[in-house]
Specification:
about 120 residues; 6-stranded antiparallel beta sheet
Length: about 120
């Protein structure tokens, strides 16, 4: 499964996204937004970064320790099962994805759509 958001640069800016120079390159413009997904004693400890590749509309989801580029490893390492904290993180991400109008797609659909772009 993946996520997609077909939109324009202006719409992304209006939704709070900013240009991401780390993820962008000569062929791809990426825009990102960060939001808290886990708090401890009213302080944000983890945040999610949603990155949209403008040309394809593909959405990349990352979870980081707050205000860093350090990925929260348990979010990605799912072989050992899902515990309640991960479920709560995913619930927050899903809420934000829905709020932004991002669509869930399967990989086969995404490949077909991207193959025939002009």
């Amino acid at each position: 499964m993946g996520y997609q958001l077909k939109t324009t640069k202006e719409n992304l800016y209006n939704k709070g996204f900013r240009y991401n120079s780390i993820m962008s390159d000569m062929e791809t413009d990426c825009y990102s937004i960060r939001f808290p997904v886990l708090k401890y004693n009213k302080h944000t400890t983890l945040e999610c970064e949603l990155t949209v590749e403008l040309q394809t509309g593909n959405v990349i989801i990352n979870v980081f320790n707050y205000r860093t580029r350090d990925q929260y490893t348990p979010y990605y390492y799912v072989e050992c099962g899902r515990y309640d904290t991960l479920k709560s993180i995913q619930k927050e991400i899903n809420k934000y994805i829905k709020k932004l109008g991002i669509k869930e797609i399967n990989s086969k659909t995404a490949d077909n759509e991207n193959t025939y772009q002009n």
